[in-house]
Amino acid sequence: MNIQTISLIISDTLQSATPLILASLGELVTEKSGVLNLGVEGMMLVGAIAGFIATSVLGNIYLGLFIALVSGIAIALIYALLVITISANQVATGLALSIFGSGLSAFVGAEYVGKTVTRLQPVSIPVLKSIPILGEALFNQNILVYASVVLVMLVWWFLRQTRAGLVLQSIGESPVAADALGLPVYRVRYLAVIFGGAMAGLAGGYLSLAYTPLWAENMTAGRGWIAIALVVFATWKPQRILLGAYLFGGVSAIQLILQALSVDISPYLLSSLPYLATILVLVLISHDATRIQLGVPASLGQPFRSTH
């Protein structure tokens, strides 16, 4: 394996991991408020097709990414209305949202299947790009690859160092106690779900405009479900999401390179490697039940009605 191949694997790992980081961060903040959203896959698909259509029609990829983000927020608001205001079952509603997003994106995007747009271009960082082996891979990426890492740090800071972050977590632990103290439980949960929708929509937009600049039905290929699993893998800690996402991205990059090199292994087996790796990791960490119990918000998935 030569230096160029190593650089390519690192670069592809970062690009493959980016949509997972974005979607997982959104889901983490949502779950920290006590709301479980299983509709990430559907929101990503809606973001992917909305961003792709906007870019195709308007010719501006950054506006397309913004539309993808807004479309994720719109779907998230519907979900929030159902599970926060009406107190619908979060698991059933999330599954319905995922199915709805898949069907809606397929219907709206039917005439765009196979069409392409100009890919989101990389932004080189001077000097750092010239570092041997790692420079080209790490510092010649598109803006969302950089932004995903920055967002991890911002979410960590928000949860650990700000009053708003502590309020969010206290509501996730006990909305009843938080409500008794006068904290705005509904408002915080709405904002958390909106942030989750924005990140899922942006992750979908990244897939259709940067990672593979075309539209295909169900192009997320289960990444929304992987993003939810990564939150558990990270035990609800944003910094650990990077590790899980890069693990998945690394395996994805390796299997793509093995396919390109025509390695004598079934392409179906190679394509399944990232998902098998994710399942294996989840099985391994499930043995440490104490760590998971310490991380999971106590009121996750439980409906709440204010007594005020």
Explain what this protein looks like in three dimensions.
It comes from Amazonocrinis nigriterrae CENA67. This is ABC transporter permease. GO terms for molecular function: transmembrane transporter activity. One of its GO terms (cellular component) is plasma membrane. Its main location: membrane. This protein has about 300 residues and is mainly α. The protein has one domain (about 5-295): ABC transporter involved in vitamin B12 uptake, BtuC (Orthogonal Bundle), CATH 1.10.3470. It is about 70% helix and about 0% strand. It is built from 13 helices and 2 strands, in the order ααααβαβαααααααα. It has helices at about 5-30, 40-60, 60-85, 90-110, 135-140, 145-160, 165-175, 175-180, 185-210, 225-235, 240-260, 265-285, 290-295; strands at about 125, 140. Strands 1-2 form a two-stranded antiparallel sheet. α1 (about 5-30) packs antiparallel against α9 (about 185-210). The longest helix has 30 residues, at about 5-30. It is globular. The chain starts with a helix and ends in a 13-residue tail after the last helix. About 45% of the residues are buried.
